[in-house]
Each structure stands twice: as structure tokens, then as C-alpha cells.
Amino acid sequence: MSPHAWRGLRSFGCVLAMASLLTACATRHPMESSGEAVWIGRLSLQVDSTPPQSFSSAFDLRGAPSAGELQLSSPLGNTLATVVWTPRSAEMRQGAQITRRGSLDELTTELSGTAVPVAALFGWLRGEQGDVPGWQADLSRQPQGRITARRSSPLPTAELRVIFQP
């Protein structure tokens, strides 16, 4: 991993680690705003890399798999990072720092060491299994507002947990 990518990853990890210190988070029902889905809750990602990485944050997910926005924030409402994507690009904003890549998968891979299936979250939040190569979503607790997805391949393995108000 390049030194620039490593700094971005450490920065992203530090931002999300700060959020994990704050455990309370309000969740709301999914809303429609101008026809777009809006989901609010908490998420955590554990990547079994060397060294292992663990991120946790409140989230606000809006839009669609093809184009949308994921805002990561502390439970007190401070924005930690905002990820915006279109069919042609993706970027993460952390204050004045902007990281741009050609796709959402490319951006999340660089930042976390694994492609995080952000686009698949829209279906999972609705209780739709979907097919994401390498990932297995456990939607058995989706009606209670809990989703767990595990990535087994390619390495590193990872686990994504989402808590939201169904």
C-alpha cells in the first residue's frame, strides 16, 4: 500500500475509532426524500488484515446503489466523513481533505483494505438478499433492525454489522 493510501486509511480509521468511543446513537425509520431512500443507524466494520482494523460510526445513507451519499458521524452529530458516488466516480470528504477514485469499490478498498458493499446495503436494509461476490449477508434479524454481512473471499476477511430502525 502506498504511503498516501496508508495515511488515508489511518486517517479514516482514526475518525471512525473516535466515533466508536461514543456508543449512543438515535435511529429513525427509513424515509423517502424526493424519491430517494434514506436510512439512519450505526455500522461497524472489522477487517482481518495485518494489523486488524475496526471501524464504527453512526451513518446516514441516502440515494441508490448507482448514485448516493453515505455520511459517517459521531452520535452527537459531528460529521466524520462523507462518501459520495456516481456511476463514474466516488469521493470521500473529511473536512478539507478529499479522496477521489473511479468507483465506490475502489475507494472503500483503498480506505479499508476490502471492498465494502455500500451499494448492497440498500437491498439488505430492505431485507433483500442480493448477490455480492465473496459476501454472505445474514438478514435473519433484519426485521429487528440488525444486519450482519461477512466477507470470506478474497482475503482479508471482514465483517460488517448494521443497526437501524426497520
Which sheet architecture does the biggest sheet show?
Answer: 10 strands, antiparallel
What's the helical proportion of residues?
Answer: 10-25%
Report the oligomer. single chain
Low-confidence stretches: 1-33
Do you know the CATH topology? outer membrane lipoprotein receptor (LolB), chain A
- Number of strand segments: 10
- What share of the residues does DSSP label as strand, in percent? 35-45%
Average predicted local confidence, pLDDT: 80
- Derived from helix and strand composition plus strand pairing, the structural class reads alpha+beta
Shape field: globular
Order of helices and strands: HEEEEEEEHHEEE
Q: Helix tally?
A: 3
CATH architecture name: Clam
Distance between the termini: 38 Å
At the first level of CATH, the class is Mainly Beta
Q: Tally the structural domains.
A: 1
In CATH, what is the homologous superfamily? Lipoprotein localisation LolA/LolB/LppX
Radius of gyration: 15 Å
